[in-house]
Amino acid sequence: MQLIEKDGVTLAYEDINAGLPPMLLVHGWGCDYASLDAQGEFFANSHRVVSVDLRGHGKSDGPVQDYTMVAFEGDLAWL
After folding, report:
1. Does the structure show a pLDDT above 90 at 12?
2. How far apart are CA 44 and CA 60, in angstroms?
């Protein structure tokens, strides 16, 4: 698990096989990146697999704010 900071919020993510075509795995509400481990292992044979803990989930920071799809999308596009 790696950590990166965006606008004062630390986001946790995992990045496997950087040289292959990318695939972004995003967990559902109330989960974290680990809920997609099986999919990540499967696709890691042919893809760069990036799994992220959305803000407010898992090991990412959970600042007091509105958690909207727009906010999550901004983090994912930035990452």
Report:
1. yes
2. 23
Ordered DSSP codes for 42-75: HHTTTSEEEEEE-TTSTTS---SS---HHHHHHH
Answer yes or no: are the C-beta atoms of 31 and 57 closer than 8 Å.
Answer: yes
Taking only the tens place, the pLDDT of each residue in 25-69 is: 999 888 888 888 899 999 999 999 999 999 999 899 999 988 889
CA dihedral 54, 18, 39, 53 (to 10 degrees): -10
Q: How far apart are CA 38 and CA 24, in angstroms?
A: 14
CB 50 within 8 A of CB 24: yes
**Phi/psi at 64 (5° precision):** -75, 110
